[in-house]
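Whiteboard transcription, Tuesday session. T.W. wrote the structure tokens on the left side:
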């Protein structure tokens, strides 16, 4: 009877031996996501259905590489390339928390990916494209030797199949666990994609939040068309690092995609729901410039090419050339 009147807390944690504890699913906390901008509590399936955009404030949540591919690609059109390449430990790097090998193994188990870059071919609104998508959940999409090798192979596949290249970029920079090997990837990726220019194949770069370090200082910013998602942080270093080094307060908006667009460093800012439409429109433009190239394909006929007639050029009285 004394326990009936005993004053206790309103909520009591379940003990491990309590039968009710076994009925609570492990992923219960994964059902809800808190928006970092407006603090709205969002139901996870609703967030996924809304392209990982907050339904209240519209802020963009980060997407994995597989989610990006699912959003952009035509159904069942993605074919992955070089998935078997694994990261090594060329320097035998280790730290107090463990070796580089163990860190990679834990990241692979947690993310489900073998590396921070997923590559392959797919179609977007029927247009064939070689794609390289960075996954920030894998060690911050840092660029290591396997990252650079897979991107270089994308350029080789694109040259062989006469495909344009789409890179979806998000990174924290070079993977310093690999030292000089990671820094060499900046030159390697640019050299690989440079061959696309010689072959007159377009490279479209999509900058997502965040895109820093060696990626933004190399191939991501030397594309034929560079677009970004709204509010994406893009630069070589973060604003806090820059302010700490320069001991000066940065202007508002630095280093966002809007600031880069204002200063002519990128070609446009595209809202996430319009990305598929805008990218396919760009691919259609390049396909008209090069009739006969396999830029227009379908998932069930990957080798089919379509000749798109190019209208004759017309020179106006002012000397302008019109198609």
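and on the right, the sequence the group agreed on:
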């Amino acid at each position: 009877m004394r326990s009936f009147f005993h004053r206790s807390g309103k909520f009591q944690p379940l003990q491990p031996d309590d039968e009710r504890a076994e009925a609570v699913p492990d992923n219960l906390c994964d059902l809800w996501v808190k928006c970092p901008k407006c603090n709205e509590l969002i139901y996870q399936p609703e967030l996924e259905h809304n392209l990982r955009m907050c339904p209240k404030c519209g802020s963009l949540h980060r997407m994995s590489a597989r989610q990006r591919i699912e959003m952009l690609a035509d159904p069942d059109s993605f074919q992955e390339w070089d998935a078997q390449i694994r990261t090594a430990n060329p320097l035998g790097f280790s730290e107090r928390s463990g070796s580089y090998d163990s860190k990679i193994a834990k990241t692979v188990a947690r993310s489900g990916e073998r590396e921070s870059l997923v590559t392959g071919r797919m179609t977007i609104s029927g247009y064939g494209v070689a794609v390289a998508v960075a996954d920030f959940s894998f060690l911050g999409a840092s660029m290591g030797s396997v990252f650079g090798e897979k991107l270089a192979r994308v350029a080789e596949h694109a040259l062989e199949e006469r495909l344009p290249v789409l890179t979806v970029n998000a990174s924290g920079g070079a993977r310093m666990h690999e030292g000089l090997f990671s820094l060499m990837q900046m030159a390697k990726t640019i050299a690989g994609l440079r061959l696309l220019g010689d072959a007159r194949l377009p490279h479209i770069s999509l900058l997502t939040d965040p895109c820093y370090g060696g990626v933004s200082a190399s191939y991501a910013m030397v594309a034929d068309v560079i677009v970004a998602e709204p509010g994406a942080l893009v630069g070589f270093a973060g604003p806090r690092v820059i302010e700490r080094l320069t001991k000066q307060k940065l202007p508002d908006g630095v280093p966002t995609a809007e600031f880069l667009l204002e200063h002519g460093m990128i070609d446009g800012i595209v809202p996430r729901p319009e990305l598929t439409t805008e990218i396919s429109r760009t691919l259609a433009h390049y396909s008209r410039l090069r009739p006969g190239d396999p830029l227009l394909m379908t998932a069930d006929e990957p080798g089919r090419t379509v000749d798109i007639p190019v209208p004759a050029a017309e020179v106006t009285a002012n000397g302008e050339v019109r198609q």
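Someone added at the bottom: Residues 295-315 have pLDDT under 50 and may be disordered.
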